[in-house]
Amino acid sequence: MATDPIDVKQKIIRTLREELLADVTLTNNLLLELNRYLDQLRNRDPKMLRLEVLGDHPLIKFGVNTMDKSTRADMMNSQNLMSTRTDLMRTIAEKEELLKNYKEV
After folding, report:
1. Which are the contacts of 60, defined by CB distance < 8 A and separation ≥ 6?
2. Nearest to 33 by CA among 93, 102, 105, 84
3. In this structure, what DSSP letter does residue 56 have?
4. Counting Cβ atoms within 10 Å, is residue 81 exposed (0-12), middle (13-18) or buried (19+)?
5. Tens digit of pLDDT per residue, the chain (105 long)?
6. Distant-in-sequence, close-in-space partners of 76: CB < 8 Å, separation ≥ 6
């Protein structure tokens, strides 16, 4: 275990950088997932319109209902991903500030 103040400071800075990198990676992954959900929503709209035009058959109604529920689930997931990403961005900013302040010490 290092007792030299310079070694301890370097270890803390290295740990903060590793955590910051992990948070940035997670944020990027969340952004990719969010884009995937938004693409699904955008691609589902024309399919929904085509299904609704077909008529009043029970299987068609079931398909429309299923796609509607999937759309709602994707929208909820997108909202959750956005709020999580916002929290992560705040955490990243706080860690960057902490790292900057710790380097100045």
Report:
1. 51, 54
2. 84
3. S
4. buried
5. 557 877 888 888 888 889 889 988 988 888 888 888 888 878 877 877 777 778 788 888 888 888 888 888 888 888 888 888 888 888 888 888 888 887 787
6. none
Cβ contact 74:41 at 8 Å = yes
- At which residue do the structure tokens 């910051």 appear? 20
Closest listed residue to residue 70, CA positions, set 46, 30, 37: 37
Would you state the structure tokens that stand for residue 2, as one six-digit string? Answer: 């290092």
18 residue type, one letter = E
HEC string of 4-45 equals CHHHHHHHHHHHHHHHHHHHHHHHHHHHHHHHHHHHHHHHHH
Tell which residue, 105, 34, 44, has the closest CA to residue 71: 44
Q: How many residues does the chain have?
A: 105
pTM above 0.85, yes or no: no
Q: Are 64 and 52 in contact (CB under 8 A)?
A: yes
